[in-house]
């Protein structure tokens, strides 16, 4: 056989093989490769979307944490203010109650002092009458001399 004829025959068989491959084999391969490329692209897009959603969710969580921290700090400050106000109010009430008790005690002491003075005046008046009796060696009638005794009490 001639080398040129073999070469031409091999070129024809190669051309048929190329045509057959392009007609029946190449389209399903390119379709499969395109589908795979599309799946990969969809997966990458979904991953990017999930990544951005995760970043957004993390940002929202951080914002909520900051907000809850500030609210907690505000509530604690308000609670401390209320506690201080309650303590101050209790101190004020205790001071008022103490002042009332002291005033009542002073009034009672003054009343007792007045009563003690009156009792002392009575006793001094009685002693003065007894002393006068002793000096005069006779009995002095307290009923008769009530006005005199009353003046004596006021002078004492």
Secondary structure topology:
Blueprint: H1 3-136, H2 146-155
Helix pairs in contact: 1-2
Describe this entry's structure for a reader.
By secondary structure, this protein is mainly α. It has one domain (3-155). Helices cover 92% and strands 0% of the residues. The longest helix has 134 residues, at 3-136. The N and C termini lie far apart (172 Å). The mean pLDDT is 87.
| Assembly type | single chain
Give the total of domains: 1
Q: How far apart, in Å, are the first and last alpha carbons?
A: 172 Å
Quote the beta fraction: under 5%
Which word captures the global form?
Answer: rod-shaped
Determine the structural class based on helices, strands and strand pairing: mainly alpha
Order of helices and strands: HH
Uncertain segments are: none
Short synopsis of the structure:
This protein is an all-alpha fold and 156 residues long.
Which characteristics define this entry?
156 residues; mainly alpha; transport; rod-shaped; 0% strand
């Amino acid at each position: 056989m001639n080398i040129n004829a073999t070469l031409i025959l091999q070129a024809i068989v190669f051309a048929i093989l190329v045509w057959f491959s392009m007609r029946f084999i190449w389209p399903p391969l390119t379709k499969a490769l395109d589908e795979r490329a599309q799946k990969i692209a969809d997966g990458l897009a979904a991953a990017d979307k999930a990544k951005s959603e995760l970043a957004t969710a993390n940002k929202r969580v951080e914002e909520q944490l900051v907000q809850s921290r500030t609210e907690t700090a505000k509530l604690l400050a308000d609670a401390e203010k209320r506690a201080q106000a309650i303590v101050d109010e209790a101190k004020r009430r205790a001071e008022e109650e103490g002042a009332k008790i002291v005033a009542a005690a002073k009034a009672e002491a003054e009343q007792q002092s007045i009563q003690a003075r009156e009792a002392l005046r009575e006793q001094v008046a009685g002693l003065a009458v007894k002393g006068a009796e002793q000096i005069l060696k006779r009995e002095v009638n307290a009923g008769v001399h009530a006005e005199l005794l009353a003046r004596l009490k006021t002078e004492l």
